[in-house]
């Protein structure tokens, strides 16, 4: 199937996902006249969906406080952590340029199912749209776009589930070099250790993980240059798990 055929199929697919209510607040970590840094809660859309039941989102909430603000990047619905929001179009363009040129450093923390064998490594596997499995993405060497993610093990441990079963988990630091949709989630699945709580890529299949309350993925660091004063912003927000 060609890329154009895939895109055509994707445009015809209707997303039936309805987000459950998110009662957690957005934490504003920093703000000035040009940008806002926030801690996004898990279970909140970054951008409102077409379905009116998916109106609540990071953008919907923040535009009430900062009229004219726009998203520079997004986090998945289940992912918590750092996001930078532009307060006008010029700032958005300047920040988007940094993201597109890959001069922004993003660091995530996650809990993975099972025990990773290697202490660190690079996952280099192209990712493409899979219309047959929407909204899943897939590893695709033919039509996929290049995707690279680094990982470093922080600790390996066992967690006791509600049923008393000991579940092997690995706490890792993840550093995506590219920004593909679902990149970290699918890359972790690709190496046989899906992110705990990930309903799309096997994060609830390991015995004892079925009732995991959220996706255990948190955007913990964001490093970029302030578009006005040109100083480095080194934002950090500790993982809640």
Automatic annotation (TrEMBL):
GO biological-process terms attached to the record: enzyme-directed rRNA pseudouridine synthesis
Entries under InterPro entries matching the protein: PsdUridine_synth_cat_dom_sf, PsdUridine_synth_RluA-like_CS, PsdUridine_synth_RsuA/RluA, RluA_PseudoU_synthase
GO molecular function: pseudouridylate synthase activity; RNA binding; tRNA pseudouridine(38-40) synthase activity
Keywords, ordered alphabetically: Isomerase, Lyase
Pfam families given in the database record: PseudoU_synth_2
E.C. designation(s): 4.2.1.70, 5.4.99.12
Every Pseudouridine synthase RsuA/RluA-like domain range: 34-190
Family: Belongs to the pseudouridine synthase RluA family.
Official protein name in the record: Ribosomal large subunit pseudouridine synthase A
Originating species: Moellerella wisconsensis ATCC 35017
Source species taxonomy: Bacteria, Pseudomonadati, Pseudomonadota, Gammaproteobacteria, Enterobacterales
């Amino acid at each position: 199937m060609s890329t154009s055929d895939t895109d055509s199929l994707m445009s015809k697919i209707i997303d039936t996902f309805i987000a459950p209510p998110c009662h957690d607040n957005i934490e504003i970590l920093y703000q000035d006249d040009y940008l806002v840094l926030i801690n996004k809660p898990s279970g909140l859309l970054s951008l409102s969906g077409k379905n009116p039941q998916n109106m609540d989102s990071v953008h919907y909430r923040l535009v009430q406080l900062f009229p004219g603000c726009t998203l520079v990047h997004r986090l998945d619905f289940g992912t918590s952590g750092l996001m930078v929001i532009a307060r006008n179009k010029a700032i958005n363009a300047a920040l988007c340029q940094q993201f597109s040129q890959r001069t922004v450093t993003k660091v995530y923390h996650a809990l993975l199912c099972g025990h990773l064998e290697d202490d660190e490594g690079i996952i280099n596997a192209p990712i493409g749209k899979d219309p047959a499995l929407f909204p899943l993405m897939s590893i695709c060497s033919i039509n996929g776009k290049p995707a690279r993610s680094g990982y470093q093990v922080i600790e390996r441990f066992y967690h006791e589930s509600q049923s008393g079963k000991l579940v092997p988990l690995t706490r890792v630091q993840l550093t995506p070099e590219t920004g593909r949709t679902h990149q970290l989630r699918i890359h972790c699945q690709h190496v046989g250790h899906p992110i705990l709580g990930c309903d799309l890529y096997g994060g609830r299949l390991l015995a004892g993980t079925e009732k995991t309350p959220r996706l255990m993925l948190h955007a913990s660091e964001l490093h970029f240059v302030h578009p006005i004063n040109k100083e480095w912003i080194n934002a950090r927000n500790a993982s809640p798990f």
